[in-house]
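Practice problem. Given the sequence and the SMILES for 2-acetamido-2-deoxy-beta-D-glucopyranose, write out the predicted structure.
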Amino acid sequence: MFHLCYLFLLLSPVKSNGENITTFPAILIFGDSTVDTGNNNYLTTAVKANHYPYGKDFPTHFPTGRFSNGKLSVDFLASMLGVKESIPPFVYPGLSTYELVTGVSFASAGTGYDTLTTAMTRVLPMSKQVEYFKSYSERLKKIVGEKEARRIINRALVAVSAGTNDFIFNFYDVPTRRAEFNIYNYQEFILERLHDFVKGCCGTGLLEAGPICTPLTPLCQNSSEYLFFDSIHPSEKAYHYVTECLMKEINDRL
Ligand SMILES: *[C@@H]1O[C@H](CO)[C@@H](O)[C@H](O)[C@H]1NC(C)=O
Ligand SMILES: *[C@@H]1O[C@H](CO)[C@@H](O)[C@H](O)[C@H]1NC(C)=O
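Answer key:
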C-alpha cells in the first residue's frame, strides 16, 4: 500500500486552492496502453486492442481499444469522481460536445516506457499527444468560449501514465510540480504484492498481448480472478482495485 499512498499524497495540492477534489470539470489523460481508451484504433499501427477478447467485460461487451477486459483506471476514476462513466479517445472522429467538455484521453498504447514500445511504430509519442491537446483546447474554445475553456483546462484532473511513471495532478500545478511526480508502477506493485496471480488471463498469460491475444487464443474462465488480462496489461479488476484505493485516500483527505 505504501506506493499507492505515495500516489495519493500527490493529490493533496489539488485542494490547496480550497476546492473540493470532487469538483473536477474534466479529466485529461496522456500516456500509454494503461490509459489508451481507443486512440490506436484510428492509427496505422499493429498495437491495437480492438478485437476480442479485449473489452469482453466492458459495459457494451465490445472491444473498444482498451488493453483490458473492461474499463481502465481512468474510466473508474472518472465515474467515481462523478465526471462521467468512461473516457473517450480524442482521435475518435465522432466525439460529442459533451465528451469534449468533460475530457478525453490522448494516450496511445506503445508510447513511452510501455513494454510494447520496442516492437512497435506509428503510435502517438508524448509530443504528438501534446499537439493533440493544443488542438483539443482550440476545439473547446469554439464550443464554450475562451474564458470557460481556460477554466475547464486549469481545473481539469490530468493523469499521465507511461510505463514506470504514473502521474495524477491538477493541470494548474503542472509547471511547478512536474519534477516531483515520479512514482508508481501498477505492475510492479501487483507483482510484489500478489505474485500468486501474475499469470494473465489471455492464453498462457506470459506471452500474449495486443495482436497475439486474439479471438482464437484460449481464455481463462473468469478474468476477475486475474490481475492481468494479457501478459502485460492489468485486468479490469486490478484497475478497479487500484482506483478504489485511490478514491479511499481521496475521501480520507476531504
Ligand atoms: C466536497 O465533497 C464532499 C463529499 O462529496 C461534500 O460532502 C462537500 O459538501 C463538498 N464540499 C464542497 C465545498 O463542495
Ligand atoms: C468471477 O470471480 C469473482 C472473484 O472471485 C467472483 O466474485 C465472481 O462471482 C466470478 N464470476 C463468475 C461468473 O464465476
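Check your answer against the key. The chain has two domains: 7-198, 203-254.
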